[in-house]
Amino acid sequence: MDLAYLWFGIVGFLFIGYFVLDGFDFGVGMAMPFLGKDDTDKRVMINTIGPVWDLNETWLIVAGASLFAAFPYWYATLFDGFYLALLLILVALIARGVSFEYRRLGRSDQWKSWFDWMIVVGSAVPALLWGVAFANIVQGVAIDESGTYTGTLFDLLNPYGLLGGLTTLLLFFTHGVQFLALKTDGDLRLRARALAVRSGILTIVVAAAFLVWTVLQHLDIAHLPVLVGLAAAAAVALIGSWVANRAGAEKAAFGLMAATIALAVASILAALYPNVMPSTTDPAFSLTIENASSSDYTLQVMTWVAVVMMPLVLAYQGFTYWVFRKRITRASIPVAAH
């Protein structure tokens, strides 16, 4: 097997892991205005992701580093064309991380309110822009013969791109609310479950529209059955997640939503294959898995590193989730906590 194709799969796996794990972090942050009735509720919500949010975000760093090393031409074109969008994502992630740490340092309500809204915005902006970015990659962007993006930021804000952004925003929001139902107790747990039922309906409608549009744009690809199969499986998992949440099966609802996000990203990768960035200027200018990859020697070294390190990282992350598996309650928040 060509190592370039193997690494296309590995990079895809890393982004799937990032969206599944940091996705519910984004959802928890976006849900604060809807579920945080008082400061204690907000502290409970933040504490559900407090031990793991930075570990979840590490998947993005590893995915970006792997993309840079395995597909340097893809990385260069992506960061050249999507520079402003990716910069906004980075600023939002920094603001969110800072807010988690600094919110508790002030005693005034105004201080906490500032950082609460930084968490909300710092969660919503990446949730939206990641969808916009990936939707545009699938649809194709203006790339010339030198591999340079010739469009602007506003070219990315097209109907399909915005629908992709709205899809990820809603998927992550519902994913996060389901996580809160799984990790909290009492009234907050019940309100989170009810909110997930309502947001889930809208998520199903928007995600279905995006998946159908994606399939219709790629009716001419040779592996259409694979794309249709993955899209259909994502739709079934999403509906199953909503049904499970409505029935109060919180673990099943959360697991099926994680499967939905994973299958949706896999369907996007299937729509791309064998391209990594299709060109709308001329198909001959498209970046493919083969012409965008590093040398065989580089990929060989990376493969051995991945074989050794990835099982260790996955084991460590699994252990972390096991240690912090218990529910967070209002009673577990000290009265003097800020």
Write the topology of this structure.
Elements: H1 3-30, H2 32-35, H3 39-49, H4 53-70, H5 72-81, H6 83-102, H7 109-139, H8 153-156, H9 159-183, H10 186-217, H11 224-246, H12 250-272, E1 275-277, E2 287-288, H13 296-323
Antiparallel strand pairs: 1-2
CATH class: Mainly Alpha
Name the overall outline.
globular
Estimate nothing, just give the exact number of structural domains.
Answer: 1
Q: Uncertain regions: pLDDT < 50 for 5+ in a row?
A: none
Rounded radius of gyration (Å): 20 Å
Looking at how many chains there are and whether they match, the oligomeric state comes to single chain
Q: Helix count, per DSSP?
A: 13
Distance between the termini: 54 Å
The neighbouring-strand order within the major sheet is: 1-2
What is the level-2 CATH architecture name? Up-down Bundle
* Proportion of beta-strand residues: under 5%
Question: What string, H for helix and E for strand, traces the elements in order?
Answer: HHHHHHHHHHHHEEH
The name CATH uses for the topology is: Formate dehydrogenase/DMSO reductase fold
The CATH superfamily label reads Formate dehydrogenase/DMSO reductase domain
Biggest sheet statistics: 2 strands, antiparallel
Total DSSP E strands:
2
- Name the structural class: mainly alpha
Quick check: average pLDDT?
92
InterPro entries: Cyt-d_oxidase_su2
Family: Belongs to the cytochrome ubiquinol oxidase subunit 2 family.
Subcellular location: Cell membrane
Keywords: Cell membrane, Electron transport, Heme, Iron, Membrane, Metal-binding, Transmembrane, Transmembrane helix, Transport
